[in-house]
């Protein structure tokens, strides 16, 4: 296979990203075996032992597992309904000089909140001022009913690395994700992926491409959104009663 992964899928993903305002050519997209491998590769590529990394508090538990495997110093920033607490973020960035900030911009895990536009703009200003890279894990994007801001779209993939995956929407057994980043980073990440895994998940990539292009994926996700909306309504009703 191509070192970057199945080319027809990467071209299709470039079109899907463009619909969310993220300009990335197929050559700026590297396929990975799910979102976890994508974050692991980024950690291997950009982190040295002892580097500080900012995460949301609370955050997805395996962000912590992967970052600790790279012997990073993990610094939590309280998560609000509109995004990270920016005063705490600024203090942590000044004090710890982090290399990365790892977050879910949309449908944050575990709070379910999405970034507000004003928070997104200020967050990118702080990231530039403190010279840190933002890793935007967007694996829940297809569950959104109304689109929210994407840091990668606002930033133009200059200091934001965008991650996607189909493990949550299709199956945890279908290990197919991707990294979208600026070209020089993709080149280094590709070399690192080949050095550590020596392959691509070609079968999963072709399966995902087929489902995306024949309409099956769209129908499947529409059904999932309906089920999630009903479950959310019932959950809110029960919580209200309590």
TrEMBL record:
Gene3D superfamilies: Type I PLP-dependent aspartate aminotransferase-like (Major domain). This is GntR family transcriptional regulator. InterPro entries: Aminotransferase_I/II_large, HTH_trans_reg/aminotransferase, PyrdxlP-dep_Trfase, PyrdxlP-dep_Trfase_major. Residues 9-230 form the Aminotransferase class I/classII large domain. It comes from the Bacteria. It comes from Inquilinus limosus MP06. GO terms for molecular function: pyridoxal phosphate binding.
